[in-house]
Amino acid sequence: MLRLAVIGLASLALTGCAEGVDQPREVSTPSPAQVRVELDAELSAATVLLKTQASEALVNALPRPTVVVPDGENRLVTMIIHDADNSDWPAGRYRLTAVCAGFGSIVANFGIGAYGEVKELAPCTNAGSVDYVEIELPTTATGLTVVLVPAGDSRAAVGYTIQKI
After folding, report:
1. What CA–CA distance (Å, rounded) separates 66 from 106?
2. 25-27 and 59-65 as β-strands: parallel, antiparallel, unpaired?
3. DSSP state of 121
């Protein structure tokens, strides 16, 4: 089972089904009531860009906003994306392809089992940017973790895919 969360002052847990790493998985976005920041164009641009990356994906996490306005409140909350699962991942090289539309920057933490990489991704642009984080598994490892942290006053939509390369 793929466990997903969007973390901020308000939390939202999302779930997706996964039979194993060989089955593509898709992650859904927060409820429309939660996404009332004017990021519609960014979400659309990131979704289009993500679809070009998704053909060979083992995981396909649809774009989510880096900021939201909680229901009934008049303030922005920065959202940290934290997705995780407990599935087994065979030895090999894996690539997280992150897409970001809007402005600002994102730091990505991509880990499988005890292996991982942290990287500041290319700056987000209105047309959308694409960047990669890769890790090598010398043996089968258990558990996926993806954490995407927006820096400063980033306002963007961020999604990702994971492929075995």
Report:
1. 9
2. parallel
3. P
Q: Which two tokens stand for residue 88?
A: 């087994």
Q: How far apart are CA 85 and CA 100, in angstroms?
A: 23
Rounded to an integer, what distance in angstroms lies between the CA atom of residue 121 and that of residue 149?
10
Q: Rounded distance, CA 27 to CA 62, Å?
A: 6
Calpha distance 51→62 (Å, rounded): 9
Helix/strand/coil for 42? helix
Question: How far apart (Å, rounded) are the C-alpha atoms in residues 110 and 146?
Answer: 5
Can you read off the two tokens belonging to residue 116? Answer: 């991982």
Distance between CA atoms of 30 and 96, rounded to whole angstroms? 21
Q: How many CB atoms lie within 10 A of CB 116?
A: 15
Phi, then psi, of 30 in degrees rounded to 5: -60, 165
pLDDT single digits (tens) 32-88: 444 445 777 788 878 777 777 667 789 999 899 998 888 777 788 889 999 999 999
Quickly count: other Cβ atoms within 10 Å of residue 54's Cβ. Answer: 20
Vertex 85: Cα angle to 47 and 56 (nearest 5): 45
Query: Cα(47)–Cα(107) distance, rounded to whole angstroms?
Result: 19
pTM over the 0.85 mark: no
β-pairing verdict for 80-89 and 25-27: unpaired
